[in-house]
Write a structure and sequence with these properties.
Length: 77
């Protein structure tokens, strides 16, 4: 079985049944952050310290989303 498919099936099951997923949103963000540190380390060719606030400069991966100030204004204009 494809692990991503199993993960999505579990998530959909939780949504349908109102159950709590095995992996929290915080866990998912931590896993993503660790993956981005690994990518940044590979790009730079040097090891990075994951324990510090943003030692590897991966904050740029988590920039704020670009949202319209008023979505209705843009769709009605």
């Amino acid at each position: 079985t494809d692990p991503y498919e199993a993960q999505l099936r579990h998530f959909l099951h939780c949504l349908e049944k109102g159950e709590k997923p095995r992996v929290s949103a915080e866990d998912a963000v931590s896993a993503l952050r660790l993956s981005l540190f690994a990518l940044e380390s590979a790009f730079r060719g040097t090891p990075l310290s994951v324990g510090a606030e943003d030692p590897g400069g991966v904050a740029h991966w988590f920039g704020p989303p670009e949202l319209p100030t008023n979505p209705l204004e843009e769709t009605c204009a």
